Structures are given as C-alpha cells and as structure tokens.
Amino acid sequence: MNVSLTEELELFVQEQVASGMYHSNSEVIRDGLRLLKKFNVPAPDYKAWLNEQIEIGLAQIKNGEVVSGDDAYHEMQAIMNDKTVEA
C-alpha cells in the first residue's frame, strides 16, 4: 500500500521518528491509525452523545455552574503541566 502525505504531515512523521519515540515512519502511521480506529465513533452515536453533552452544558449554565474562559484555560494548563511532569 502506498500512502501520500501532505508536506506538513510528512514532516510531522519525521519529527516523531527523530524524537526517538518511534523507530520508523511506518510505526508512526500505524500508531496514528490505531488512535483513529479507537476514537472513530459512528456518526449516529456521536451525534447523540454530542447532543447529550450540549444539554448537560446548557443545564449547567442555567444552574450558574460556569467558570470564566481565563479560569478554564489556566486549569487546563495546570493539568497539562502536571501530566508533562509525570511523563
């Protein structure tokens, strides 16, 4: 099988190999496809899930359970920094 990648994706694959996390381009592609397969939710299920999440969010807004965008951003940054330190 031959696969054509955009220049940007090809560079990304090469960077992953250069980082030492992968031994070959094929390994990077296989890992990416595994993730795609794992998270590829059939459209009807995804739509139902998304609608459910929207309803939950709207109920939270109605109940005043909200945070500012800045607070949410800083919380996510803290979570990302903690995970980076653990890795």
Which helices and strands appear, and what pairs or packs with what?
Elements: H1 7-18, H2 25-39, H3 43-62, H4 69-86
**Total strands:** 0
| Envelope shape | flat
Poorly predicted ranges (pLDDT <50, ≥5 residues)? none
Beta-strand content bin: under 5%
Query: What's the N-to-C terminus distance?
Result: 34 Å
Topology order in helix (H) and strand (E) letters: HHHH
Main beta-sheet strand count, sense and barrel state = none
Mean pLDDT: 89
- Helix percent band: over 70%
Number of helices: 4
Oligomer: single chain
The Rg value, from CA coordinates, equals 19 Å
Helix/strand/pairing category? mainly alpha
List keywords for this structure.
87 residues; mainly alpha; 2 domains; 4 helices
Can you summarize this structure?
By secondary structure, this protein is mainly α.
How would you describe this protein?
- This protein is mainly α and 87 residues long.
- The protein has 2 domains: 7-39; 43-86, no CATH class.
- Helix content is 75%, strand content 0%.
- It contains 4 helices and no strands.
- The radius of gyration is 19 Å and the shape is flat.
- 1% of the residues are buried.
